[in-house]
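Re: export button greyed out
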Amino acid sequence: MIESLTAIKESLPYLLQGGGITLVIVTGAMAIGLILGLCMAVMQVYGHPMVKRVIGVYIWFFQGVPILVLLFLFYFGLFHYLGVNLSAVAAVMVVLGMTTAAYQANIFKGAILLLPQGQFKAASALGMRDLTAIKSIILPQVLRLSIPAWSNEFSIVLKDSALAFVLGAPEIMARAKFIASRTYQHLPLYIMAGLIYFVLTWAGVMALSKLEKTVRIPGYSNKGI
Amino acid sequence: MGILGLLLAGSGQVLAGKTIVNGIDANFPPFAFIDKTGTPSGFDVEAMNWIAKEMGYEVTHKAFDWDGIVTSLLTKKIDMVASGMSITPDRLEKVAFTNPYWKIEQVMVVKKGSGLTLDDLLKGKKLVGVQQGTSEAKWLKEEAKKNGWNLELRYYNSSPLAVEDILNGRISAAAMDDAPAKDAAGKKDVEIIGTFGMDSEDFGYAIRKEDTALMADMNEGLKRLMASPYWKELIKKYDIK
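Workaround output, generated via the alternate export path:
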């Protein structure tokens, strides 16, 4: 019992540093996903049929292959073949980013399709260029409507970041394992790792929930009971 | 700024100037592990630090999954492997090794007081744990088939995990190198029951075949290390005899 507590106490700073790396990976991946996903969603709704098809293939590929497989494929295969030398953290960020972009594209597309067609038509009638209409009218609403689904995606990506461990990125799971190998205190350490992931996910989801309430339009959006 | 450093760490040319990256299995005490402060440590890590300083290199240690370590070396993610790596004919096909610096025996580890003998393990239809990608894993698989042993192998990511499962009762024994076995026996309720017929193996540092200059330097460094009193100090410190 004492051994477990000492192991936890000594390893906590080390594990928390791993939490820092996890946050870097997740922030990067979600940012890539947001930008890429948003562009893809807009092009899927308003774009040329050929473009729609290409994006469809991208989404189909990244939704179909497990992230673990993608990590090895990219890190040891594609990047090496292309001569691109990325660190493990950067590689995980890119792969996770590209995967979550596929899912986020669907989230945003769903939100865009929810909006009444009349809005876009009215904008055209007023002489607005398509791009301006999308940027100023459609997207703000889309972003607001997508927050709950996006918060889901965030918590999924945070947990998927644990896979970075297989590429040697020194995040929470990798560090928990290192200490467990030295001290043989597996149970307390993996509980600690789980707790840290839980706290990070919960904090992020709470923040996003607060954001959603802040941008809700009173009198327009459903408020619930 | 620190984030940028993290993203760039490891990218760019390795082996530029005289910095080298040593790939380790960080779950392999006492040869390589992460200590309390979070820095890589262990017999091979400290030996490498000494050799690097002696031969004018800067070395950093990076942890990888053991069964991908050769791929990491070949794809230039790391420049060498100094981490309790056995020299085997299979591996010699892909990489070059320095002169051997340590000999190990492969042993079986069982729960203390279980009373299991080697015969029990080989012929008693028992579950034996091994680490993925190790020479003992390969040997046991081939020999079992040849000699008609009916043991069943269970693969683990690292030997400490196999030891945990012995204590959990999921497997009866684990096969591993003698030094980590000794380390485990000192920390948990397991005991070594002896070797199981595999030839002893030599450890060497693995280096890409084309890096002949690095190989020459490492061999020279090893020679100097093994002639210095620090060698005996390390052996005593990590109790690997």
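The domain at 2-215 of chain A is CATH 1.10.3720.10 (MetI-like fold). The button fix ships in the next patch.
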